Amino acid sequence: MRIIILLLISTCVYAQQNDCEPEKFRVVFSNGELTTPKQAFTALNELALNLGNSHADQGITYDLAYNYSVDAFKKLLQSSDQRLWYVDLARLVYNWKYQVNTPELNEHVEKYREAILHGQKVLVVSHSQGNFNTNLARQMLANRKPAIAMESFGIFGVATPANHVGGSGTYLTNHLDIITSVPSSSPANWALHRIDSGKIVDNIGSISAHSFSDTYLSPYYDIRPEVVRGIKQELGKLKEPPQVVKSGSVTVTLTWNLGNGNDVDLYVFEPDKTHVYFGSKTGNSGYLDVDSRQGFGPEHYYTDCKKLPVGEYLVGVKYFSDSSTPARQVTATVTISTPGSTRTFITKLGNATPTSPNFVKLAKVVIDQISDPTGMDRRLKYQIVPMLAPAEKMLPIGANDYQAWFDRGQKFVELGRFEEAIESYDKVLQIKPDHSVAWNERGIVLSNLGRYQEAIESYDKTLQIRSDHYVAWNNRGIAFYYLGRYQKAIESFDKTLQIKPNYYLTWSNRGNMLSILGHYQEAIESFDKSLRIKPDYKFAKDGRNNALTKLKQQ
User: Fold this and answer.
1) Please, what is the Cα angle at 336 between 44 and 440, to 5 degrees?
2) What is the distance between the alpha carbons of residues 425 and 442, in angstroms, rounded to a whole number?
3) pLDDT band at 100 (very low <50, low <70, confident <90, very high)
């Protein structure tokens, strides 16, 4: 079972700012092998909590460049010695004998490019094998056209198995870390000490010493302040890039791989069918602010934050012309960004002629109002729906194979493709309507999309089938929180605790609700119960401290 963790104290921001202007810094976390999406997001939140919302009076946006570990997981399961597995894997990667199966790497590169084109300085904090991917991403970024300001891109390595940090960045590795066993890895440069006693650490184990959250950002060791100091030092080195393109709630960037008289055009059809392209750059919802005709790009479209109609925005490309005869094949890369989501589409185009250019529909962006019967939540929800390759082609599935559809949905969740995950869960429920886990998973995905009322309806379906499903009760409470219905959230959390009294996450969530309602003494009691079950639960500690401060101010 999976659960949503309510992090009310998190400073991590994924939504677009109200004025649509991006923060000056973008800090991205790049995880290592054997890191689940949940663990990666937890590490990102820990990073944001420790680093803060700004540096040198300039705001920070936090983001994740998730690296998948499917092959690595399979090999670990077959290994009888976990320590040896770490060392062997890192050695293979170092010698380029391990195929890093990272189709998402292109998306990471385009994410970095997009941020720099918008005038942001980008720093990637890479952990473990994520350092190899980030070093490679930097090489790709430096070699792609059109060129961007590479002095605006930096890397800070943590526990790196590589022998260098790309772009002359810095790193930190503690003396117990298992990564120091890897031949040719960067040597340890920090002796780990305990905060309370000042004594050197010698008994936590080399694998535990490798953990990003539990060691490098742990409040119990002296390395955490050094990590923060090192990151801030790297942020200070970054140069502010020119803002090549403008920012909006929805942005679309096109680049391609050929120059010398090669022209590819970006097309956007707005909800009212207004056609925005090089011949008509101003639409009713947005603008084509950059149009390139000599090759490489970029071309760029952005929406106006002050007038953003709901509906479907169709995104496509045309190969308009090439100075060579016959026309050369061209690879077009289109990156679509919405609040909380970035997707990259890569397609090959050919046979261009001025009179009959080939047009490819890549994706549609669907914008709608969040469903909330109370009318309190006026935010918009955004979905990027691929059109280039139907999701059904991902794998062959029998008509009644609900388990295969469920597994497919789980895979789409890992990829961050939430709309396709919902489609898969819907298939499960058509075949097996009493699949309580699928209803719960569907609710989680709907919550991730900001569709909280629909998420509650899915959780209710779970609870009709299994009234003792404490995870669904907890998730239901979190959805009510996001709708601003705090008393209903507490009622759901109380149901959770009737079923599972030792569920520390829910005690902490309940404490947060009580704090919001101003019931600080009751909130402290809830946080205390969470901490009695899990004494090191950081979010309960922070929530309790906040409630205690508020209580003293009364």
Assistant:
1) 55
2) 6
3) very low
The predicted structure's pLDDT at residue 395: 43
Is-contact 129 46, C-beta < 8 A?
A: no
Tally of CA atoms within 13 A in the half-sphere of 83 that contains its CB: 10
**Domain at 25-237, CATH class:** alpha beta
Whether 391-553 and 25-237 are alike in CATH topology: the answer is: no
Give the span between the Cα atoms of 499 and 407, in whole angstroms. Answer: 28
Return the domain boundaries, the chain: 25-237, 251-386, 391-553
pLDDT at res. 532: 94
pLDDT of residue 13: 28
Q: Is 169 left (phi over 0), alpha (psi -120 to 50) or beta?
A: beta
Least confident of 301-305, 352-356, 505-509: 352-356
What backbone phi and psi angles, to 5 degrees, belong to 348?
-95, 135
Predicted local confidence at residue 124, as pLDDT: 98
pTM of the model: 0.65
For the segment(s) 391-553, the CATH number from 1.10.3090.10, 1.25.40.10, 3.40.50.300, 3.30.70.120 is 1.25.40.10
Axis-axis angle for helices 452-465, 436-448 (nearest 10): 170
